[in-house]
Amino acid sequence: MDGLTMIQDDYRFPVEKMPLIAVRERAPGYADQEYRIPDTMQQAIVRTDTGEVLGTHSGKYNMVKHEDIVENIMEGVALADISNDYDHTIKVYENGAKLKGSFIFNDLIQKDPEVNDIIRFKVDYMNSYDGMWSIMVNAYGERLFCLNGCTSPESITHEKNRHTAGFDVKASAMQITQALKVFFNEKDRWDAWRKTKLSLENVQNVFTKTLAKPTTPTLTNKVNAKQLTQLMANYNNERNLLGNNKWAMYNAATYWATHAPDADANKHRVVVRRQDAVQKMLNHKLWEEMV
Q1: Which of 7, 103, 171, 205 supports an S-S bond with 123, CB 3.0-4.6 Å?
Q2: What digits encode the pLDDT tens for the residues 132-176?
Q3: Is the model more confident about 118 or about 100?
Q4: Cross-strand bridge partners of residue 93
């Protein structure tokens, strides 16, 4: 479709930075003592239409509103001038504390001849008021076969801006343009992965030391068994379609990243965390040594 399709949640709600108050409770009949915390030390981000505190931050925090990020990214996509055939979706989470948007370019595609699949160019962006997400812009390929985000080692671009710095629209436009060039060069890499045969032992070893490695491993807890079981199940499904090769393992990992449990109330957080983990796996020496 030529133009813009936007499925959007309400992200234009009012927010303000407000001072924090320290309260010393006193005995019944006596007024509590209140002490204002200097803005240079700590401040709160308040959604004023609902009265909810969306986050607290240090004095150096620079609030960037969701609507400003959306407008800047739209301007960046327009400046990149790579296509007008895209769908644009916007979602907010946790009462508005987090925002994630996506541009899917319908005419910027690569074909996967093995499964008659198509991989589209996609740009995600994120912002948060609670400090959990930096301002992020992430460009990559997305398989249509299972709506599985294909994360490359470069991801293809993964820009992060802390809320203590500004957002450069022109720089983002240049990164999107460069990411598109990388996207069309990915075919050679993917083809090489298809030709790289693997054993189940090899696949399990790499998963064990990367994606299935606990956040805080100990002598008795060196692997997340549940996660490893899921990853190997994903690989078995993919190899039935793609064969015992690196391409199947790659898709098993990205499927895991983009398919967090539906029952998880924080599924959006899980997906972002897992995609970051897959990117790290693709840059790990064990992955590079699988040739």
Answers
A1: 103
A2: 988 888 887 777 655 566 655 444 455 566 665 666 666 767 777
A3: 100
A4: 98
Comparing C-alpha atoms, which of 116, 114, 118 is closest to residue 242? 114
Radius of gyration of the chain (CA): 22
* Strand bridging mode 3-8 / 85-93: parallel
* Cα–Cα distance, 253 to 268 (Å, whole number): 17
> CA–CA separation, 24 vs 37, rounded Å?
13
pLDDT recorded at residue 261: 80
Domain ranges (residues) in the chain: 3-9+63-186, 196-288
- pTM for this model (two decimals): 0.77
Query: 111 falls in which pLDDT band (50, 70, 90)?
Result: confident
Q: Which amino acid is at 75?
A: E
* Tokens, residue 217: 């491993």
Pairing of strands 42-47, 85-93: unpaired
